[in-house]
Amino acid sequence: MHSYIPAERFFPYLSWPQVEALPDKANTLMIQPVGAIEQHGPHLPLIVDAAISTAVVGQALHLLDAAVPAYALPPLYYGKSNEHEGFPGTISLSAETLRAVLMEMAQSLYRAGFRKLVLVNGHGGQPQVLELVARDLRHQFIDLLVFPMFVWGAPHDVEAIVGTTEYEQGIHAGDVETSVMLALMPEQVEMVRAVRELPVLFSPDSLLSLEGRLPVSWTMDDLSESGAVGDATVASADKGSQILASVTAGWARVFEEIYRFEGFDLSNRKRKITEDTQANK
């Protein structure tokens, strides 16, 4: 059941007395891999985003210093994937449902005494939902720290491995994801069906982009006939192993830093809450 995650770091394997007895729960990292079940072109399985987020978390936990208390939660396989609903097989939650699931999961962890929650998201269609969840939880619980992060956000050398063009334009089921899946579960990749689709949507001097600072909204039907954007034909397991090694080393560093992060100075916030309470009496 723990898949890529070290068994001793898999939270559901604990009993409730073991959870109750954990030392320093307030500084223990609770890590939630978040993925999606959505189309990834004709050559990759639907599970790509969930598989990558879970594998990266698991491999990073193998690298993490054993003295750092950290547990992975079961992966959340479903995500907000309605931009891919034009292709069969995609299973999508609404933003409201995904938000509710994450909020209630976090509230349960808070009741158990945990105060550091890391959301490691593998799907590019939902970072904004996780960011809103993190902000709402921070507003609800003054002593809860939530880190809404993207699996590709940790330090890595992916651009050097696949090249700048693919790194910037291969946003879905291209070289990066295909190579990683060849390294993780090659039996689920059909390379004979791999495609190269790199649509030219903007002029070189355009200020607009699919993602980034000035994005335009899109669905995958707008971009691709195959459901892929990038060059999957050049993918390899060797590149996938290099990508995984680079990204997971980065995540081990991130987890270490989160563990050492002591949070914010709450004195001003506490004083403001006291003043507001007195003003309302």
From TrEMBL:
| Cross-referenced Pfam families | Creatininase
Keyword annotations for this protein, in alphabetical order, are: Hydrolase, Metal-binding, Zinc
Molecular function via GO: hydrolase activity, acting on carbon-nitrogen (but not peptide) bonds, in linear amides; metal ion binding
Signal peptide location:
none
* Cofactor(s), by name: Zn(2+)
Q: Name one GO biological process term.
A: riboflavin biosynthetic process
What protein family does this chain belong to?
A: Belongs to the creatininase superfamily.
> How is this protein named in the record?
Creatinine amidohydrolase
